[in-house]
Design a protein that fits this description.
Blueprint lengths: L1 H9 L13 H22 L4 H4 L10 H24 L10 H5 L2 H5 L3 H19 L3 H5 L1 E3 L6 E3 H25 L3
Antiparallel strand pairs: 1-2
Helix pairs in contact: 2-7, 2-9, 4-7, 4-9
């Protein structure tokens, strides 16, 4: 039972499942989710106190503050990966240790407002560039150095839409459990 609870706390919307076919409708829906994410996140966290922001969403997880900063950092990497992929031939991207980044002082202590503002501009740019991708661009890919896997741009659109919703659910589920 404890493993089930940990799984539900870790993956409140489930793990990402890639579609069999990357239809135009699927991609447009996921880009719309990416575009909407900053405003939804802001509505969920704007009223939280410092104590609430520094609450862990689960044992062994991150605080709400760390989750917010992590979303910006991860999605900045997404944007850069898209740019590399559009301008280089199958680039090997640079990986980063998200846990070490989340343990840095800025992620632990910085106010969330600058990061929420960053997410607004970043997600506008992500949605803009994603909407401009041609069929040929969507097939362009990068290589992840962790395992050598190749990812097409069409694949990461759904992944990053899920990623934002995944961490948003960490926050909303914590708020429900604590009656915030």
């Amino acid at each position: 039972m404890e493993n089930l609870n940990l799984e539900k706390l870790s993956y409140p919307i489930g793990k990402f499942t890639a579609p069999r076919i990357y239809s135009k409708n699927y991609l447009l829906e996921k880009i719309a989710e990416i575009a909407a994410f900053p405003e939804i996140l802001k509505k969920e966290v704007a009223h939280l106190t410092a104590l609430q922001l520094d609450t862990y969403y689960r044992e062994g997880g991150w605080t709400v503050r760390q989750l917010i900063h992590h979303c910006a950092e991860s999605h900045m990497n997404c944007y850069i990966r898209i740019k590399w992929t559009l301008t280089e031939n199958k680039p090997v991207i640079k990986q980063y240790d998200e846990n070490l980044w989340s343990d840095l002082n800025d992620s632990l202590t910085m106010p969330i407002e600058p990061t929420l503002s960053l997410l607004e501009g970043l997600h506008f740019r992500l949605a803009y560039i994603m909407n401009s991708l041609s069929e040929k661009d969507l097939e362009k890919s990068f290589i992840h150095p962790e395992n050598g896997n190749e990812f097409a741009l069409k694949e990461i659109i759904g992944t990053y839409a899920w990623h934002g919703n995944h961490h948003l659910a960490h926050i909303t589920e914590l708020k429900k459990r604590n009656n915030w």
